[in-house]
Each structure stands twice: as C-alpha cells, then as structure tokens.
Design brief:
single chain, two-stranded parallel ribbon, 2 helices, globular
C-alpha cells in the first residue's frame, strides 16, 4: 500500500474574494486574519496549504459550498 506524504501546515491567512455582486468592506480581510490567528492558536492544520481562499460567486445556489483544490482552479 502506498503511503501518503501529506503535509501538515499551519494556517497563515484566510482571504476573501468576490465578484461585482458581492461588495464587501476591506475589514472582511481583517476578520479572516483574526480567524486564522485563532486557528493557529488552536494548532489547526490545513494539510498542504497555509492559506485558505474564499471566493464568493453567484454561480452556486444559496447556502451551497464547493471546495476546490489548487489543481481544480488552474
């Protein structure tokens, strides 16, 4: 059986992005930084990635979430 070599990185930052429809104040990024600091304090691990990007788009139905890897986006 192949052994998985998964990294166990500590979260550095949570960043928010959105389209024209989602207008949010820059203070939202500060909230993401605060969440990330608290998660670091609790030793939260994010696997291979040290940043989480939250992209607000209108193509998903309300209340739905889609999780993509970097390979899905490229």
């Amino acid at each position: 059986m192949k052994e998985l070599n998964m990294k166990n990185k500590t979260i550095i930052d949570i960043r928010y992005y959105g389209t024209e429809q989602y207008k949010f104040d820059r203070s939202l990024n500060a909230i993401g930084e605060r969440y990330a600091r608290k998660l670091r304090e609790l030793d939260f691990k994010t696997g291979e990635y040290d940043h989480i990007y939250i992209n607000l788009i209108e193509s998903l139905n309300e209340g739905c979430v889609e999780i993509l890897t970097q390979e899905d986006v490229i």
